[in-house]
Amino acid sequence: MNAKTIVTLGLKVIALTIILLVCYVVATAISGVSAPSPATTLPSNGAGVHMKLAVAEPAPTDASAVLLPLLVSCLLEAAVFTYLILRSRWFGWKLVGAILLAFFGSNTVVTQFESVVYLQRQLPSGMVLKLLVMGAIVAGMFSPLAVLILGKMRRKGAPQTPNQRPGMPWSAWVWKLATIAVAYLILYYTFGYFVAWKNSAVQAYYGGTDPGSFFAQMATIWAATPWMFPYQALRAMLWTAFTLPVIRMHKGQRWEVSLAVALLFAVWSSQLLLPNPFMLEAVARIHLVETLSANLIFGGLVGWLLSGTKRR
Q1: Range of the structural domain that residue 270 is part of
Q2: What are the distances in angstroms from CA 134 to CA 63, 119, 192, 304?
Q3: Tell me: the pLDDT tens digits for 137-149?
Q4: Which are the contacts of 306, defined by CB distance < 8 A and separation ≥ 6?
Q5: Which of 179, 170, 186 is nearest to 304 (CA)?
Q6: pLDDT tens digits for 2-13?
Q7: What is the pLDDT at residue 137?
Q8: Rounded to an integer, what distance in angstroms lies between the CA atom of residue 183 and that of residue 73?
Q9: Contact present, 305 and 176 (Cβ < 8 Å)
Q10: Once rounded to an integer, what is the mean pLDDT over residues 108-129?
Q11: DSSP characters for 47-101?
Q12: How far apart are CA 79 and CA 11, in angstroms?
């Protein structure tokens, strides 16, 4: 890759960052999404804790305090999707569809899937629907523009690279999906407890205490909400379903597919950089480390298991 190509690619990433920022602003206005009230209950952290927030920070008055982290988040998201698009063997609307599904599914659906269960009484009426609409608008606007700007709307020169990864028998699907579900539960609760819940700032913020050990925490969750474990396993299947087109379209080796999915799952944690009037900055930073680490590992595992090996 020569200097001209690097500069051109950098300019395209910057352009996509600005476009993504505009998409978020437009989608927020169209969907009618507004800040929740101070009594809002947020989704659980990885430790499975659902508490009403007792402390809120005032919204920042300096526009740069919001704009800078939003730009950083958009830049990271744009960079990840640039990589996914350029390393795809698909073109045109087929590629647009795969990017749209990955964007909307992993950024919006997986998150709001929790909100439907945990926040029915806390979120304003219709808020989940508004958030889904906002996410759909962002994904719908950004996906075709990204594919177009990166020159993948039309196939040029060589024909589309054929799929070189062998299909899997149903028995392989069964054990791999079961492994993914179990791995997600382990990562979700392990990082939630040891990274987030062991921190005194998080405990004070949520008004909870550490029961003394990881297994004691799991026992507490099992006693109160035993359905949460199969529910989180179902969430793992959603993550996987939204990512399958990305795995199938990627033309890289198995390790590169694993890296691509890891980045896709982890990049959304960057949104925790944004100022939140209902979450202390210290708590948000801890959740950033928690979700970034867990999702990075989980994405890498999903990509590795489901990509298989390329035919010789």
Answers
A1: 3-307
A2: 22, 18, 28, 31
A3: 999 999 999 999 9
A4: 176, 240, 243, 244, 247
A5: 179
A6: 888 899 999 999
A7: 96
A8: 27
A9: yes
A10: 73
A11: T----B----PPPP--HHHHHHHHHHHHHHHHHHHHHHHHTBS--HHHHHHHHHH
A12: 11
Residue 131 · residue 24 · CB < 8 Å:
no
Give the single-character DSSP code of 162.
P
Please, which pLDDT band fits residue 311 given cuts at 50, 70 and 90?
Answer: very low
Q: Is residue 75 part of a domain?
A: yes
312 occurs within a structural domain: no
Q: Which of 258, 286, 285, 264 is nearest to 273 (CA)?
A: 285
The residue with tokens 């800040």 is 35
> Would you report the helix, strand and coil content of the chain in percent, each value rounded to 5?
70, 0, 30
Asked, for residue 43, whether it belongs to a domain, the answer is yes
How many domains are there within the chain?
1
Q: How far apart are CA 292 and CA 299, in angstroms?
A: 10
92: left (phi over 0), alpha (psi -120 to 50) or beta: left
What tokens appear for 262 in the block? 């890891």
Six-digit token pair at 149?
């700007």
pTM of the model: 0.85
Tell me the torsion sign for CA atoms 67, 68, 71, 76: negative
